[in-house]
Design a protein that fits this description.
Blueprint lengths: L1 H22 L1 H10 L30 H4 L9 E3 L5 H11 L4 E3 L5 H15 L3 H4 L11 E3 L15 E3 L5 H7 L4 H28 L5 H4 L1
Parallel strand pairs: 1-2
Antiparallel strand pairs: 3-4
Helix pairs in contact: 1-2, 1-8, 4-8, 5-8, 7-8
Length: about 220
């Protein structure tokens, strides 16, 4: 039991440290600066004129770690945040799956629709428009390759847009007339996500026997 308590205490401390990084944008910025990822625009092929797909963009199950690692058709557990036993269920999902889905999270449907509309509006822009807000080689925010790209051996068929702090400068480049409206959506979404992240972290710690007062 003593060993189990020490193990739980170490794990709790690790989770608290991770929580601090997640909630502290400056700490996260330092991590991103240490691992820069950018789009090698000069090496991008012209997909409109290609007759054969470059090997760097040809994915197999060996290249897709997420696909090859799972032989099951099961989905991650869905957890209702209003469930009286939510902490236990969430803790079980973390130890068995490492991932979970949530329902009754309290984020307004209207806001989810807004953030989806914003995302679609951004990625539907012509490439030359998106490049106006491209992430610099040592930068953090802006348009570029998804940050998970470094975990794969192949070039990803996707793009990403990182927002750290205010997106005002980047959004002004993309939407000179409507950037304030989109900034307001991001700000509201960030506020809800921070509250939700804090709640999930407290529940995860609660499943380990750590009380909320111990976090503060």
């Amino acid at each position: 039991k003593r060993k189990e308590k020490k193990k739980t205490k170490r794990l709790s401390k690790l989770i608290i440290n991770l929580f601090t990084i997640i909630m502290n944008s400056s700490a996260l910025s330092d991590v991103f600066r240490s691992h820069p990822i950018h789009i090698p625009f000069s090496n991008l092929p012209d997909f409109t004129s290609l007759r054969h797909l470059p090997d760097s963009y040809t994915w197999t199950t060996k290249d897709d770690l997420l696909f090859s690692a799972s032989d099951s058709d099961e989905s991650p557990p869905s957890i209702d945040l209003t469930d009286p036993h939510v902490a236990t269920r969430l803790g079980h999902a973390c130890t068995t799956w490492g991932a979970f889905q949530i329902t009754n999270h309290g984020v307004p449907s209207r806001l989810l629709d807004d953030i989806e509309f914003l995302s679609r509006s951004l990625f539907r822009l012509p490439v030359h428009r998106k490049l106006k807000a491209s992430r610099s080689e040592n930068g953090i925010s802006g348009y570029g390759v998804a940050r998970i790209a470094s975990f794969f051996n192949k070039q990803m068929w996707s793009e990403g847009f990182t927002v750290i702090g205010s997106p005002l400068d980047d959004f002004r480049k993309l939407w000179p007339r409507h950037h304030l409206k989109f900034c307001e959506i991001i700000q509201e979404y960030e506020e809800h996500m921070q509250k939700l992240a804090a709640k999930l972290m407290c529940l995860a710690l609660g499943s380990l026997g750590v009380e909320e007062k111990d976090i503060k």
